């Protein structure tokens, strides 16, 4: 007691009292090593609450109960409305958007809660913590900002979360924010973000239907060229691939009799007509004359799509003349000059459906059928008060793979201020592999969703012996792989600059909608997919990215990024020249001086209007 009390008093005088809410033992150890004293939170709900009735002391009290303020988690039904989980006590509804964002780390919060409660028990830290129980922390690292009392929060000097991140850290919010990119940068959104639509809004749903049809027409031209080069032109059907248990096949809605029947002879001709009209619109030829939208022509799209499904998913071969073959090549060449995503969209028209505000890959499904997407859309429209439940995004059908296995990149960055915007990029990152070889014949999660929480269900599966068993690589391992491919330059010259630009574009678009608070900062995790040309494609941005190690690589990198984040937001305040580890400045907006109206007097003059 003789040593604990002076240390606590010294920490109080130096404003070195911290609180941690969530599975962050590294943060706790690093702060204690700096001489900080922890104001421990209740083990169950871990809610920081201001005690009412005592305005002098502004004490922190425990919130009774085991997290009863949490809302029931809704389990998504891909072809219907979201269904509440069995243990929910709340009605199924959507709270305010910024209260419904689920960070990745929250998934580990419950299972590590017991570990934190027992950590460092009965030692000197418990004693020092008890001496500062009535003090407001100077630093808070929390997994959920909503767990903190709203009256108490402004009194905490440094907090690791920003409020109202809906515009950046939900699929629907990011999709909406990036649509405003032309107001901030002369950059084409389609060069780094796969096409995305919010199904809860009718105008975007109509735009998606048109995009789906146009993509089907382009895909048909690609397939016609591919199949015409394989065998003599005709109408054939390839055998279906072997079904793997749990697979979601790109199945056809047509009967066997329909599949064996000849294709509509004008199918390729109609696809060429649609693509020509689309080229006209892309070239702004519809400004001076009444060019109809390709999806409002005389083409019977229901029949066209069914015929396309035959070609794409059942192996039927379209009729293609020599003249049409040359026309297909010419049209696709001209479309490539206008459409940045033509190279990644493939030929099977696969789209990915995502719940708007969920993380860790929950509820995500892939589909190749327009009717399946529309069935889901009908379940989430009709109420303007509800936030959009689902977004649909073009699936990258031609990703870069490693050992024929799909992967994505988790890239960290920190925002230390929104006004002026100040962001820091972390030079280290890691790759997450799928558990089965990449294939578009089967659309199950093991092949297409790289989230660790999804892939841990397939621990017994190994796509290739060269893929590590924990399915994680560091960026240095990836760079070594690129060197073996003869593209060592791709990392520094293409991938990293592309990720930096995409992150900065997203931040600029979302900053006016994010709650800015001086003293706050946040560590984010952006997910990127790499195309065959090594261009990175932004998939989503996660708040509160998981820090729970799932491998040897993430154990090291997650510890490092937490250490360097504290260096950036704490040590650098006292010593601007101190090391900030692997962080580098991504962007610092120049401060804008306010305009002072010196000597300017404004007045409104006029007369009232009288009733006649």
Automatic annotation (TrEMBL):
Biased amino acid composition, Basic and acidic residues: 54-64, 90-104
Coarse class of the protein's main subcellular location: cytoplasm
Keyword terms: ATP-binding, Cell projection, Cilium, Cytoplasm, Cytoskeleton, Flagellum, Ligase, Nucleotide-binding
GO CC annotation terms, alphabetical: axoneme; microtubule cytoskeleton
Any one GO BP annotation for this protein: cilium movement
UniProt superkingdom: Eukaryota
Pfam families according to UniProt: TTL (PF03133)
InterPro entries: TTL/TTLL_fam (IPR004344), TTLL_monoglycylase (IPR051437)
Residue span of region Disordered: 44-122
Location(s), subcellular: Cytoplasm, Cytoskeleton, Flagellum axoneme
Catalysed reactions listed for this entry: L-glutamyl-[protein] + glycine + ATP = glycyl-L-glutamyl-[protein] + ADP + phosphate + H(+)
SUPFAM superfamilies (alphabetical): Glutathione synthetase ATP-binding domain-like
GO MF entries: ATP binding; protein-glycine ligase activity, initiating
PANTHER family the record matches: PROTEIN MONOGLYCYLASE TTLL8 (PTHR45870:SF3), TUBULIN MONOGLYCYLASE TTLL3 (PTHR45870)
Protein name as it appears in the record: TTLL3 monoglycylase
Biological source species: Cettia cetti
Gene that this polypeptide is encoded by: Ttll3_1
């Amino acid at each position: 007691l003789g040593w604990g009390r002076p240390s606590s008093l010294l920490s109080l005088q130096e404003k070195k009292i911290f609180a941690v809410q969530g599975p962050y033992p590294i943060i706790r150890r690093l702060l204690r090593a700096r001489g900080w004293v922890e104001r421990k939170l209740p083990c169950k709900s871990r809610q920081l609450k201001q005690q009412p009735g005592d305005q002098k002391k502004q004490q922190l009290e425990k919130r009774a109960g085991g997290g009863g303020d949490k809302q029931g988690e809704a389990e998504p039904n891909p072809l219907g409305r979201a269904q509440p989980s069995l243990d929910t006590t709340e009605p199924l509804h959507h709270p305010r958007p910024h209260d419904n964002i689920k960070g990745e780390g929250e998934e580990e919060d419950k299972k590590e809660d017991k570990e934190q409660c027992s950590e460092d028990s009965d030692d000197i830290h418990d004693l020092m913590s008890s001496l500062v129980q009535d003090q407001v922390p100077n630093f808070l690292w929390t997994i959920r900002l909503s767990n903190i009392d709203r009256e108490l929060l402004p009194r905490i000097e440094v907090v690791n979360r920003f409020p109202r991140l809906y515009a950046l850290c939900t699929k629907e919010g990011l999709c909406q924010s990036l649509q405003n990119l032309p107001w901030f940068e002369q950059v084409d959104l389609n060069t780094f973000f796969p096409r995305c639509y919010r199904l809860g809004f009718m105008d975007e749903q109509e735009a998606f239907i048109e995009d789906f049809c146009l993509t089907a027409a382009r895909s048909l031209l690609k397939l016609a060229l591919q199949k015409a080069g394989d065998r003599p032109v005709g109408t054939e059907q390839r055998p279906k691939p072997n079904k793997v248990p749990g697979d979601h096949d790109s199945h056809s809605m047509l009967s066997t009799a329909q599949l064996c029947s000849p294709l509509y002879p004008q199918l390729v001709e109609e696809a060429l007509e649609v693509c020509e009209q689309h080229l006209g619109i892309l070239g702004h030829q519809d400004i001076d004359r009444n060019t109809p939208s390709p999806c409002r022509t005389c083409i019977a799209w229901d029949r066209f799509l069914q015929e396309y499904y035959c070609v794409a998913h059942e192996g039927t071969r379209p009729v293609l003349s020599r003249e049409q073959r040359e026309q297909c090549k010419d049209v696709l060449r001209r479309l490539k000059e206008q459409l940045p995503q033509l190279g990644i969209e493939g030929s099977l028209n696969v789209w990915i459906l995502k719940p708007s505000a969920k993380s860790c890959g929950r509820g995500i499904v892939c589909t190749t059928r327009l009717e399946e997407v529309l069935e889901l859309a009908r379940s989430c429209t009709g109420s303007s008060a509800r936030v959009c439940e689902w977004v649909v995004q073009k699936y990258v059908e031609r990703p870069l793979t490693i050992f024929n296995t799909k992967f994505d990149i988790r890239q960290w960055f920190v925002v230390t201020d929104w006004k002026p915007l100040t962001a820091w990029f972390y030079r280290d990152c890691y790759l997450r592999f799928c558990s089965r070889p990449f294939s578009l014949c089967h659309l199950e999660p093991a092949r297409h969703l790289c989230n660790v929480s999804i892939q841990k269900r397939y621990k017994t599966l190994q796509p290739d012996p060269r893929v590590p068993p924990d399915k994680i690589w560091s960026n240095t391992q990836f760079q070594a792989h690129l060197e073996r491919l003869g593209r060592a330059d791709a990392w520094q010259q293409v991938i990293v600059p592309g990720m930096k630009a995409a992150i900065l574009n997203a931040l600029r678009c979302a900053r006016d909608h994010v709650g800015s608070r001086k003293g706050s900062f946040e560590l984010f995790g952006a997910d990127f997919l790499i195309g065959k040309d090594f261009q990175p494609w932004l998939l989503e941005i996660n708040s509160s990215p998981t820090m729970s190690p799932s491998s040897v690589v993430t154990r090291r990198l997650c510890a490092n990024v937490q250490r360097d984040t504290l260096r950036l937001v704490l040590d650098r305040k006292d010593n601007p020249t101190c090391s900030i580890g692997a962080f580098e400045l991504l962007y610092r907006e120049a401060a804008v001086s306010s305009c002072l109206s010196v000597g300017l007097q404004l007045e409104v003059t006029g007369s009232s209007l009288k009733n006649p």
